[in-house]
User: Which sequence fits this backbone?
């Protein structure tokens, strides 16, 4: 069965590769990521994953995902510039927050999806740490302005839930969606 990954995120491709899933095509979806008025983080992520999967026309299965950081009702997406990344890091400093990834899988006429939440705590960040992190550029393209899989990992003393969900694709749920749609993953019996 043909699988298209509707994502430009190298992390999503690498996470799939980690479980032996190699898409037949990778086509990033170009959609408007502006939240609707009053839209809650989980609903926003779910809507974007659905829109990304629908924006790519392909035979077979189309997989898409969207990751956001949620501080209460507030949605932190990818910072648009360094000033916004700084705002996000100041807000997240010393705080527990949620990282929500919505995964969507589309096949002709059908759509399956899961929204997964991981609780993450960031340590209290000093001005020096924030300045050095901003200078590293790692915040670019990362929801909430940090990357747990990078230097940002040093800011995270605690998580509760799926790690791969924070990096951008919850592998357990993604594998379940693929299996449910009849896609044969290596864990079904092929050599990994
Ligand atoms: C919190 C966090 C997010 N991220 C990333 C995962 C996502 O790639 C990104 C959130 O942006 P998304 O809009 O979910 O995805 P994307 O623009 O990177 O790719 P595409 O829409 O084409 O699939 O933040 C990390 O890599 N590490 C982290 O610790």
Assistant:
């Amino acid at each position: 069965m043909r699988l298209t990954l509707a994502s430009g995120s190298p992390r999503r491709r690498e996470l799939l590769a980690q479980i032996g899933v190699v898409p037949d095509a990778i086509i990033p979806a170009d959609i408007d990521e502006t939240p609707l008025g009053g839209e809650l983080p989980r609903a926003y992520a779910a809507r974007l994953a659905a829109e990304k999967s629908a924006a790519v026309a392909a035979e077979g299965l189309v997989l898409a995902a969207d990751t956001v950081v949620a501080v209460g009702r507030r949605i932190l997406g990818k910072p648009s510039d360094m000033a916004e990344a700084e705002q996000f890091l100041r807000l997240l400093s010393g705080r527990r927050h949620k990282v929500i990834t919505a995964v969507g899988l589309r096949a002709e006429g059908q759509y399956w999806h899961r929204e997964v939440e991981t609780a993450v705590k960031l340590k209290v960040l000093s001005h020096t740490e924030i300045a050095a992190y901003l200078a590293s550029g790692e915040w670019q393209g990362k929801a909430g302005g940090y990357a747990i899989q990078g230097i940002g990992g040093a800011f995270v003393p605690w998580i509760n839930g799926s790690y791969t969900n924070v990096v951008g694709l919850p592998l357990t749920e993604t594998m379940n969606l693929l299996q449910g749609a009849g896609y044969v993953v290596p864990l079904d019996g092929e050599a990994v």
